[in-house]
Amino acid sequence: MTKGFDFPDSGLTPGMPVDFEAFYEMHRADYIHWAELYLGNRADAEEAVDRAFEQLALDWPEVLVQEKPAAYAWVVMKHRTIDVARERGRRLELIDTAPFETVELHDAVDPIGELEESLKIYRAISALPERQHDVIVLRYCLGHTITETADILGITEAGVRSTARYAKRRLKEALGMEKEGSADDHTH
User: Which of 14, 74, 112, 172 has the greatest number of beta carbons closer than 10 A?
Assistant: First the structure.
């Protein structure tokens, strides 16, 4: 860590504001989980997230005056993840290995067909606008609730539901699926 910060394992530097420590404890694991989907390994994800928290710690008073501090922190974390990807000579993309690790794939009647479908879905998710992409990844790839997704992104629960609804429509169109009733849009 740089600048004397010691964030891993919650070993925050003494003297950090209590609200920063609480924010760190509340969001670090979620941020790492997200970054790992894009960077492909835990060590790179931890490095990116710890860099983000270093920046947030240095700028904490300015972060707190933002209209939505959690939304600001999410952007900082994504930027540090992009930085780590670039340093490793990679583009920031949803890692396509996730479909290989699903239980459904192992239990599928047609595992190759399931894999092809999963890869199409991941490509379609990657093509979504940024906010829609983040909501879909947090909600459906990482399994966060609407409330958790709202907290992580610093938006309202209604914003998460609305964004997910539009994203699912775009995904259905991208995947050539027929429009399904709006009841499907409200089940998650």
Answer: 74
Cα 149 from chain centroid (whole Å): 9
Q: What was the pLDDT predicted at 150?
A: 95
Euclidean distance between CA atoms 39 and 169, whole angstroms: 27
Mean pLDDT value of segment 61-82: 94
Q: Would you say 119 and 99 are in contact if contact means Cβ atoms under 8 Å apart? A: yes
Cβ distance 81 to 92 under 8 Å?
Answer: yes
Concatenating the DSSP letter of every residue in 92-154 gives ----TTGGGG-HHHHH-SSHHHHHHHHHHHHHHHHTS-HHHHHHHIIIIIS---HHHHHHHHT
Distance CA 86, CA 55 (A): 18
What pTM value is reported for the model?
0.74
Kindly provide the b/e burial profile for residues 59-76, where b requires at least 16 CB atoms within 10 angstroms of the residue's own CB. eeeebeeeeebbebbbeb
Higher pLDDT, 120 or 93: 120
Q: Which residue in the block uniquely carries the two structure tokens 């997704």?
A: 149
Please name the residue that has the structure tokens 């996730």.
98
Mean confidence (pLDDT) of the chain:
81
Q: Which band of pLDDT confidence, cut at 50, 70 and 90, is reported for residue 53?
A: very high
